[in-house]
Fold each of these.
Amino acid sequence: MDKAQQDALKKAAGIEAAKIVENDMTVGLGTGSTVRFLVDELGRRVQEEGLHFTGVTTSRRTQEQAEGYGIRIVNIDEVDHIDVTIDGADEVDKNFNGIKGGGAALLWEKIVAINSNRIVWIVDQSKVVDVIGAFPLPVEVIPFGVGHVIKKFEAKGYRPTLRMDTDGKPVRTDENDLVVDLHLERIEHPQDLATDLITTVGVVEHGLFLNMVDTVIVGDPNGPCVMTNSNK
Ligand SMILES: O=C[C@H](O)[C@H](O)[C@H](O)COP(=O)(O)O
């Protein structure tokens, strides 16, 4: 699948997910290239159909895009609930375990997700996998002592790399933290790994989102299809 085909599938999933949003809802807006299509469609509905809802964003990037369309964005602490959060993902398996954070937004994404009544992911078909882990697992780490955290990950065989930007500088998250990517190839026991990562001092959050998502809308050449999680 080339990039144009993949973008078409991402766009179709984003447009489908935008139908979930109704007037007066509070909506978590994720981050990434698939979510950009979602926000474009929500912006179109706001401007052409008079849709009105309140958004809580998972990154400054998404906030800027949404506000550019006149979507009302508030801080997460200004709302008492989030009706639905729509976000992208890097991989998801049949047990609804996923990897997120390819765009370094995992921490705010997880905070918004756990405070949402419903979580919807939008992905293209290439992201639905049998076993997660081919996509490098992002881990958000505070800068102080990051070298020691990396050494601990190396000793465990996690094959860590510090994420760099195109200028050769370390990527910084919206919280000014660093991202260490773990090149694991296959994650057979995601819950054990999640526990190990979150109990490592210096780690703020990791990109394993295990059995959190309710619905996955998958962009497929035959039209978007829906995977529903009945085990949550
Ligand atoms: O940090 C970024 C997020 O977790 C994204 O939602 C994820 O990386 C998917 O992004 P994209 O839609 O660009 O593939």
Amino acid sequence: MNDNTIPAIHAAGLHKSFGDYAAVEDVSFLVPYGRVVGLLGPNGAGKTTTMRMLVGLATPTQGVSHIAGRPYAALSRPAQQIGVVLDAGGLHPSRTARQHLRIAAAMAHIDAARVTDVLNETGMMAAADRPIKGYSLGMRQRLALATALLGDPRVLILDEPANGLDPAGIRWLRENLRAFAAAGGAVLVSSHLLAEIEHVADDVVVIAHGRVAAAGELTALTAHHGGDLESFYLDLTATTTEVRSCFAQNC
Ligand SMILES: Nc1ncnc2c1ncn2[C@@H]1O[C@H](COP(=O)(O)OP(=O)(O)OP(=O)(O)O)[C@@H](O)[C@H]1O
């Protein structure tokens, strides 16, 4: 049972520095249950770093974040509470999808029957017993999503999940994220595909230069741009489109 008065995701004043380089500065936002929130921003803006902090893969220099009211590290059963897709790489090339999912389920104390469920849900059943090394990018994305869904979580954090998906896969993802939120789940999804975010998101958070440049309901934010997310986004980020790079700053 969820306490819907507690946000699914709460980022409060997150900062992350790499050496002297401030990749993320004072980023705060909420993702309530029942909503899809799009995390947008130019290359190098700090989206992935923010998501990594939310799930304990990067330690904030300052600030805190909570998932369902607790820091990620304090979740009792993280795989059952939050599904994460941060990188569709990092899969063992010789394993099959079914083997990968069985191992992930066993490690998270999830019923092995869920493996069949998520293979079906993500359209991966036909490829389930082939080695991952032969998978396309889109198939790896589907497997990453299947892994995220294994524990039947109520919260999803997805970094560019549409990357490599074919048109049918993009539609499938859109419909599933909308259905997930309609059933009371919460989704934070990053993407450069603004048309896709326009279809799927209720709210957006735009990060530019490591800071929140705009956040709120999609329809309200884009009202002065005829409801067009692309015009809104390009106006907002017009002065911040250069790729930020720690490397370029020799840090
Ligand atoms: N481990 C690291 N060490 C040094 N710099 C890093 C590290 N991780 C990220 N950065 C820098 O932090 C900044 C933000 O990177 P991040 O990957 O969060 O951006 P992003 O918004 O996800 O970009 P993209 O849309 O290109 O994926 C970039 O300048 C990047 O070079």
